[in-house]
Write a structure and sequence with these properties.
Blueprint (H helix, E strand, L loop, with lengths): L4 H25 L12 H29 L8 H9 L13 H18 L8 H9 L1 H19 L5
Length: 160
Amino acid sequence: MARIPELLCADVRDELAKLARLEQTFATAEHYLTCEAHAVSDYDRGAIGYLLHNFYNGCENIFRAIAAYFENDLGRDTWHADLLRRMRLAVPGHRPAVIDDELYRLLDDFRGFRHVFRNCYTFELDWERERLVASRLRRAAALLHQQVNDFLAGIEGLEP
């Protein structure tokens, strides 16, 4: 039985609210982004990295819900990259694009960082790379909220 668009919209809006809370937490650590690597402890770098990791997880949760509703087919080996790529594609007669090319590029950096974060020790993280990704969180979050809400407004009222 297909999920109705209203339930999809509710799930996505709930995830957007959680991301908004994460953005507030990130704002309390944002001052570190002006610091050189030697001035930021491994603990603080790990905490910032974890927020970046969680931000992308939230984005992916939204995209997986949309993909499950409209598509239901992602490859096993490359599904993280495939999922993000598909969200920038409009599928005529099926669904509009969820994100634009700018947001796709920003989120692809978060996806790449998350992969590194999951597979190394905090003290092995490249602070310059982490700081670059972190400096893009505000822009990525603003675009995400705008574009996902526009997408939801466009699909509300669709028949299951």
